[in-house]
Amino acid sequence: MPRTLVVLLAMVSSLCMPPCARAQSPDARPAPPQNSIADSAEHARAARRAFDDVILLYESSDLAGLRSRLDPGFIGHQRFLDGVQRDFAAQRLVRIHLLEPRITAGADVAAIQVSWEKRFVDAQRFEPRLLTGTMIVLMHRTTSGWQLAAIQGDDPFGTHRIQPQGGTERRRTDDALR
Questions:
Q1: Contact at 8 Å (CB) between 93 and 87?
Q2: pLDDT of 8-46, one tens digit each?
Q3: Which residues pair with 114 in a beta bridge?
Q4: SS3 33
Q5: Strand ranges (DSSP E) for the chain?
Q6: Positive or negative: CA dihedral 148, 135, 53, 85
Q7: Which of 10, 115, 118, 175 has the most crowded CB, counting CB atoms within 10 A?
């Protein structure tokens, strides 16, 4: 009889415990942490690929594709798109080369610091142009993938108003974030 009582008490007490306490065994260990260095490297590669896609969309004058890659919280969203549309009308054969990229990435955010040079043909004068600069790009990962969230520094997008005189000009902007 006492043995039956002990078994009955054990069963009742197990029913009173919360489900998470019943599911864990005493020797259960938490899952080992994932390799954060490998994860951040993978996030950095994915953010860089997404930014390269943004560059390709800009070079091919694909405004709809470019708009889909912008984060809704992008500061200066409409001004950015207006400048890009003017560039599409004023510049031909656009190529942007990214030099010396440095990427700092986390799980959902990546900062890409890069020097760039933009080569294009001015549509009004039919002259080749070259613009250079440096920028920091903030990429944000959402459920639909990596999106362009902010640009700080010299912005190669929306450069229609810059008219280099000597063939090469370093573009500087006063905007902290665009």
A1: no
A2: 455 545 555 555 544 555 555 555 455 565 677 888 999
A3: 135
A4: coil
A5: 91-105, 109-122, 127-142, 145-153, 168-170
A6: positive
A7: 118
